[in-house]
Amino acid sequence: MTQDKDTNYIGSDSVLEDTARDICALAEKHRNDSLFLLSLLRDLEKIHRQIRVELFEGALPKTRNDLYQFVRDIEEKGGWPYIERMRLKDLLKNLEFEQKTESEEV
User: Fold this and answer.
1) Cβ 61 vs Cβ 69: under 8 Å
2) How far apart are the two ends of the chain, measured CA to CA in Å?
3) Would you list the domain boundaries of the chain?
4) pLDDT at residue 1 in the model
5) 35-58 tens-digit pLDDT
């Protein structure tokens, strides 16, 4: 990483825009297929992990100045990348709500 490199170069005019649109369209197409959507989320998490381990970790700053720029960018432009997982407790709440709704309809 160098000082003159903008770490936010993947933004709204992103090279990933088409890919993201395709992934969202695929997810929308399978909106009611929880197993497919779960598999899609697993694939995205696998890609995230692969990029982090095989590429990102090796590209981390090697000098104090680069580290300073890196941390400053994290603070200014959105923090550390993270793929959030649905908590089991939230999943169970959704199931309870659906069961109550179904029993009220009968």
Assistant:
1) yes
2) 62
3) 17-105
4) 44
5) 999 999 999 999 999 999 999 999
